[in-house]
């Protein structure tokens, strides 16, 4: 069973920097062999961003054009207005279908990149474990190492498959929307962007809380896996000395810590996103 006074045990609960450039550069090096897929993903991301902006523009043309002109009586030929509205609706449908195909292709490409990077990481990590001295395995429980190879690597897969592309997409869309707002109406743009400092502050607070609870959850999961793996391996000894009840209490304790950390992370998400939605609604209203 992992001991709490083992330094390697406490490493799982240490919260590092919010953004470690050295670590990120090391991770991105694993993506460099897949440059062609990365270029394709960036192109698809650009097209997706542009297609996402076309839809609202078409809706604006329909509202300011045939719909409003027919309502205020500026246009008496309802047939022509309906035909123009139908034409805009057809373009909107075509753009929506194109956006669907682009996002489908983007998801496939990003998943491909993520899996290729994770494959290389798993191979490197396993090769590294094979070369470690036996003393390393005495200091680190097997369950902890299994967590590093499985859960932690899967988290990196999420980073490469969706995290990075989502961040880039949000930055591109936000930049394009800001430029469009400033072009259409500077006053309304400034009113809309007035909530940006509050959103940034809330995001920083949420990031710090989420990182803290995720790190705790990860550490307790590693501890839980280590305890379970070693208990199963030594089940003959546990039963021989009638230690079932004490092991059950210890397992319940570790499992409870993991559950509390997970619920804390869920609470952070449950508070952050409704607050962002409320602030956005107030500004738009």
Instruction: Write down the Rg.
Output: 27 Å
Helix-strand sequence: HHHHHHHHHH
* CATH architecture field of the largest domain: Up-down Bundle
Which structural class should the secondary elements be placed in? mainly alpha
The main β sheet shows up as:
none
Shape: elongated
Mean pLDDT across all amino acids: 79
Query: CATH topology of the largest domain, which one?
Result: ABC transporter transmembrane region fold
What's the count of strands? 0
What is the percentage of strand-forming residues?
under 5%
The DSSP helix count reads 10
- The CATH H-level superfamily of the largest domain is ABC transporter type 1, transmembrane domain
Are there runs of 5+ residues with pLDDT below 50, and where?
Answer: 1-5
Name of the top-level CATH class of the largest domain? Mainly Alpha
Q: Return the domain count.
A: 2
Helix content: over 70%
First-residue to last-residue Cα separation: 57 Å
